[in-house]
Structure formats: structure tokens, C-alpha cells
From TrEMBL:
Species: Clostridium aciditolerans
The protein's name in its UniProt record: DUF3841 domain-containing protein
Lineage: Bacteria, Bacillati, Bacillota, Clostridia, Eubacteriales
């Protein structure tokens, strides 16, 4: 995973504005207004997932007072989403500052879907959707018709963190991970590419 003793190498793509703040203030935080600006009309969907993440992840790694939302980083450069005009940061971060999870698990949450514990659990959930004639799974979260199922879906999202402790303890060495950071620190930067 690119770990050096108690540190891990992570990659993230960030805007020139983030880099400017990071260089000037030596630390940078994500504010709600940035998410609303970035995602515009679909920001409410993202904020639903992000707000859930914050409520849980701050119990894993303490959230600084200035942090409103997390930065997304990755253990593989391929996932960092380096776009023209953005900077690619290579970071070396103390492992105790990182919340690890699988990219595909987070994508299910972003799509407001059930995050099954295993294949049997996935099949049970799919059967329930079929029985209730629900063809668009995100309707469970976005529509007011399924309060009990909505709470089950949100409870399933706790499975996002199933690998975190195993990874931190070195029990498993996952390679394709996403990692949440409450802040970016200038001192963590190993390299910056435009």
C-alpha cells in the first residue's frame, strides 16, 4: 500500500485554489460551499452521503473544528482523477490521520444504494426491492415512501468501514483504496505535478 512505517503514500487531485491556500496557510480544509459550488444541482445527493460519512468517520479519526467535509485521496494514482488545470499531490500521511475504505463501496453510498455485508446480504436486499417493486434503488432514500427500508439502507452504509481496522493493523494489504482526510497539510506533500 505504499506505507512507510506509520505513514502511507496517498494521491489526490486538487484545484489551484486549494494549492494556494495550502502553500499560504500550510493547512487546508473543505467547506460545504465548495461542494455545493462543485456539484451544483446534484449537490443535495452528494451532501446526503457526505453528511452520513462525517457523522461516522469523525468517530474513527477526530475531525478538526475547521474541517466541514473530507478531502478524498487514493492509494493508487490511477484513481486520483488528475484533470487538466488541477494539481496532482503525492502525500505521505501519518496513518492515524486516514480513514480507509474501498472505492466501489463509497460509490454505492454516493449512489444512495445498499452496501451489503456479503453476497447473501446483497441477494436478500435485491429480493426485497423486487418484492416491493422498486426499480430505482435510490428512490428508497430520495422518496418518502420507504422509511423502514431507508433506515436499513443507511445502516448498511456502516459496512464502508469494514476494512479500516484490518488495514491499519496490517492484517490485509488492500491496494485499491480510497482514503478520507479531514485536512491537507503542506508538510505531507512529497510531490506536486501540474
Amino acid at each position: 500500500m505504499g506505507a512507510k512505517s506509520n505513514k502511507v503514500i496517498l494521491y489526490t487531485s486538487q484545484s489551484p485554489e486549494v494549492i494556494k491556500v495550502l502553500m499560504e496557510h500550510k493547512v487546508c480544509y473543505v467547506k460545504r460551499e465548495f461542494i455545493v459550488k462543485k456539484y451544483q444541482e446534484v449537490s443535495s445527493v452528494f451532501l446526503e452521503a457526505y453528511n452520513w460519512y462525517i457523522s461516522k468517520a469523525q468517530n474513527i479519526v477526530k475531525k478538526p473544528a475547521n474541517a466541514e467535509y473530507p478531502f478524498w485521496t487514493y492509494t493508487k494514482i490511477d484513481y486520483a482523477g488528475w484533470y487538466p488545470g488541477n494539481y496532482l499531490l503525492v502525500l505521505e500521511v501519518p496513518i492515524e490521520e486516514v480513514v480507509f475504505f474501498k472505492v466501489e463501496d463509497w460509490n454505492k453510498i454516493l449512489n444512495l444504494k445498499y452496501l451489503a455485508a456479503d453476497e447473501k446480504d446483497e441477494k436478500m436486499h435485491k429480493d426485497m426491492l423486487t418484492k416491493l417493486n422498486i426499480s430505482i434503488e435510490s428512490d428508497v432514500i430520495t422518496k418518502p415512501f420507504y422509511p423502514n427500508l431507508k433506515s436499513e439502507v443507511k445502516k448498511s452504509w456502516d459496512n464502508l468501514f469494514r476494512y479500516h481496522k484490518l488495514i491499519k493493523s496490517g492484517v490485509i494489504q488492500e491496494r485499491d483504496l480510497q482514503a478520507g482526510l479531514w485536512e491537507l497539510r503542506k508538510e505531507w506533500i512529497v510531490d506536486i505535478k501540474l
